[in-house]
Amino acid sequence: MLSGGELPAAILVDAIGRLLPGVLGDETSALTDSFQDNLLAPPVYTRPEDFRGWKVPAILMSGNHKLIEEWRHEQSILRTKQRRPGLLDE
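The chain above was modelled as a monomer; its predicted structure follows.
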């Protein structure tokens, strides 16, 4: 339940606006959105490297962009299998 129509309107404007050329600063960023390729997004990590026992995977700290991209794709598949397996059937 929402108190007014402002928030839903803003969500629609944002969702539709992302599809228009020139709206995003980097056009390729929309290609990594969830569901773009029927996969959920991989986990996202930030600093510090160790927060209350939760550690950033070493591969993400390696600086090897090719391996990081492979890891992210594997994590997307794993996350999709666990949370939305029906998406993999499509």
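The longest strand covers residues 50-51.
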